[in-house]
Every structure is written in structure tokens, then in C-alpha cells.
Amino acid sequence: MKLIYPIALTKIKGIGPRTARSIIAHSDSLADFFSYSKKDLMQIPGVRESIADAIHNKTYLEACEKELAFIDKHRIKALWIEDKDYPDRLKQCDDAPLMLYYKGHAALNSTKVISIVGTRDATHYGQRLCEDFMQGLNENQDLLIVSGLAYGIDALAHRNALKNNIPTVAVLGHGLDRIYPASHRELASKMLEHGGLLTEFTSETIPERVNFPMRNRIIAGMADVTIVVEAAIKGGALITAEIANSYNRDVCAFPGSIYEKSSEGTNYLIKTNRAHMIRHVQDLEYLMNWEISKKNEANQQLTLSFKLDKDQERLFNLIHTTGQLELNQMIDQLQWPQSKLALVLLELEMQSLIHSLPGKVYKSLGQPLVATK
User: What's the predicted TM-score (pTM) here?
Assistant: First the structure.
């Protein structure tokens, strides 16, 4: 298929992703579609008279040829929705863009894809979360970090991914002939070497406000999970989380101080069950049923084996022996007061050795350890 046809489809006013899908479904090919009579065009659901007129006027051809020249000059990959390199997860979304423009080397269909979003006004807490979280991810194989190259959490996610040798892709709200914000040009340049830049917009598309919610649906749609680090009660991060939920994708959020505006959004997502609360990489791996990296297991053993007293060791080994255990079973076997049991459970959970499940059930996350106190 000649590339000019899918590009032309995106250049005609009134044709969005859903109408384009209707056109594809009701046409023998895109080349045939552009040769249909006006009457035949208007038989296709979603094709109005104005769209049919625009197709026959062919005023879009000059823009298409110009875009083809731009793509060729800058070695940009034009990804049609049926191409094998098009993001598979995004393809499952009803409003996925028909065309994507990509410059970079990262695999868009990595085994694990994580989108990270948040406030432009990141606090020291948010900065540290990004740094620690990305450091915890650096032993995971075939991982991709996606964000939007904006100020704050987005840029922190990209920078810390690069710092830990994790491929990272920025989804842009404009064409690939510019970088916005301009202060992130150096960051974007580094990402081209160890990640990439992705957009649905053709060249000469400026970063208008209306483009960014469209950009956010790509961030949400191409990932297994969207993580909100810090966010106010209103803003792009919460929009992205809502879109991810509408796609039936997992959403996670880090809890924050009830006194900080930058945590109002994340706390709201957790409170209203729109996001799972996470504290570190182990929580994410458990939630997503991803294999915990050997490094994380080794670090956990090294760090925690020196913190268990005899009560903690006894309870942990009891839970670990069965994999998971109900609270009443613990009480029967240990014969401890409920107040003591609750305290020791909390201590083990804070050290990421166990995880609480619905129904007062606790699951082991680590290996049996020997008491050291």
C-alpha cells in the first residue's frame, strides 16, 4: 500500500479514528476508496457530503506529498495501524490513531510497557519517587517507559529511565519538526539514542491545547499500566488515568501527604478505587503478576534478614510455608493476642515480606529468613 493513502486519510477534515475504521471496513482498499464516486463514498457509515467533497477536491494531496518528503528526509517511521511495529496494546483501543510517526530505536511492543505521568510542579517527594522507582526497575528485561516529555514528572521519568539504561519513549502533542517545551531538546536528543519520540501529528502541527488530551490517550493506550506519581485534583495526569481505566488497563498511584496539593489527585484516585496504591517496584510487580527481578529478591534478603526478631521470623515462615494464610488461621496456630498479631503483620508488610489480600488473607512475597535478633 502506498504511504500517501493512509496519510491522506488523516489529512481530510472530519475523518477521525472511528470514521477511518469504518472506511477501512467498507472499502476493498484505501486506494480504491479514494477513487470511489461521491455517491459510493456517502454509502459508507460516517462519510458525510463534506468529506466526500474534500476527497474529490484532492486539496490534501500537496500536504501529503510534503509530509512524505519530510518523513524521508528525517528517516521517520510512518506506522500504519496494520503494520507489525505499530503498538499492539494501542491497536486494541477503539480510538487508536490510524497513523503514528516514530523516530527512535526502542521497541514499542516491549514485554512490559509502563506509562508514568504526573504534575508539572513536582515536589522533592515526587522527584525522589521517580528516582527510586526507576532504580528499582533497572533489572527488568524488555521494559519500556512511556511519558509525555512535559515539565515535572514526565521529564523526571524520562531522565531517570535513561540514567538506569531503560528505554523510554515520549508521546508528543505536535509534529516531529519541533520539540515542546524547547528546554527539553537535549533530553529529547538523548532519548533518540536510547528510546524515541512518537506522535500521531504530522509536521508543522503546533502544540495546541486541544492536542494534549489526544496525546494522553496514546500514553494510556500503549501501556500495560499507567502510574501517577504526583498530581493535583485537576490536570492531564488524571485525564490520562481516566482514559487508561476506560481502556480496562491497570492504573497505579503513589500515596502522598494530605496537606500537599500535588498529592490531592493521587490520593483521590486511590480513595475512589480508580487506582491501586503502590509504594515501590515490588508492589507493581505483584499487582501485574510480573516476575520479581533477581536483584530485587537479593536486595530484599540482604536488607531484611537483619531486621527480623523471633516473632517476625515465626509469623513470616508460617505464612510462607503455605504461600498465603487467613488471619483466623494465624490466631489458631500462634495463640497470640490479636493486638500482637496485628503489630507483627504490619511490621512484615512494611518490610515488603508479605502483602495483604481481600478477606483478611496475607501472602508471602519473599523467602524464609533466619531471625537475627
Answer: 0.76
